Amino acid sequence: MANTERAIRSRRDRPAKPALTRQGIVDAAVRVMHADGLDKVTMRRLAAELDTGAASLYVYVRDAAELRAAVLDELLAEVDLSPVAAEGDWRVRLSAVLRSYLGVLLTYPPLAHSALLTRPSGPRYLDLLEALLSVLHQAGIDDRRAAWAVDLLLQTATATGAEHVSGSDDPQDGRSSLDTLVEAATAGRYPRIIALGAELFSGTGEDRVAWAFSVLLNGILATPRTDPPT
Amino acid sequence: MANTERAIRSRRDRPAKPALTRQGIVDAAVRVMHADGLDKVTMRRLAAELDTGAASLYVYVRDAAELRAAVLDELLAEVDLSPVAAEGDWRVRLSAVLRSYLGVLLTYPPLAHSALLTRPSGPRYLDLLEALLSVLHQAGIDDRRAAWAVDLLLQTATATGAEHVSGSDDPQDGRSSLDTLVEAATAGRYPRIIALGAELFSGTGEDRVAWAFSVLLNGILATPRTDPPT
DNA sequence: ACCTGAACACCGTTCAAGT
DNA sequence: ACCTGAACACCGTTCAAGT
Fold it and tell me: How far is the CA of A165 from the C1' of D9 (A)?
């Protein structure tokens, strides 16, 4: 394209190229993720989207991991924190917030994956943390216990989200491990796995996760932190 | 190198190039991982190690993810399952097996990361599963509950391992989230986070993980699975 | 200061062609 | 059947050079 034509285009045919900002980059990343999936959110692809070179992004973002963390924080705006101030059983309300968080992660499971590695630290994540701590406080759980409990709760939710990444419909992997199992079972190994059988894979994801959160809440109530040695 | 020289070398100066096998590939992967770290365990690097082309590996391994899963399963041989048959409190013994598993993951934390995505399904993983189910059975926990419990226990251990991936000593990230925090605190946001303060990051990894496993075990004991609707 | 093109040093996977 | 070289379609990050 000739220089003159280009100058005309930039003024009339399309919006003026917006100045590069950190927020603009994150917004573009969210757009690309919704359009083409998270694995297309690369420095190069984003740079193309913003009509610049990949190197330019490094002025606003330390590296690709930080960018993904920022994208997650952006998405965390969708978590429903309203149960914190609602009426009713605190367990139900805490569970509701955690399920909402998990729901957001499940929109883009690969994000959960990166959330386990790079702990998010943006404002929305802090909002979520504050919300959970607030409910635990309402429940009368002491601060020291709550501090560790919130970590465990978020870890469980995040890990559950991350596991759903490869929720592909590929029966091959299951088959091969089943073969191993059948062979070994004949040899008398793995009696417990055989006894449980399909029970190991039973239940919907929702039922399992609801049970898991119940386990956690009951466990947290039942497990004080011992006093530190003096 | 001339063809003749090459022929001589292969007979005399170095061990004969071993035939490619799946196990040989996995062994090479473990070697490379110990020598240069998991992120050097790539199809190309492995091929070079085995004196062949990357394409050749695809005869024995579906893709890179399957290879990493196989490497993890190999490492799982080091998990100490002896507490299963030992004397004493089942909680202590279950916890010991889980800690041993976590210990192996922490030798190469990036492996834990990939374990969350691609559920391992090799023989050592099945051994671990059987071991945990066996202790839960000894504890008198019913089968349906044990089936879900073992999943939650392994998920927690694996996620804990995965989180330690970026255990780098980079204070920058913590700093920036702390800044956000201080600003927002002035505005009266995040009262609970402020109240807890350093408590959120307190304790050694070992203490936290011991507490987490206690929470899980207490929670599992306190949380039956409701009967399925008829 | 900000932005860029080009380069560096890699990836996983496929495929036609050889043995 | 097994193995290979070469190609395809990408990556993240750095850096000298421009504006």
Answer: 24
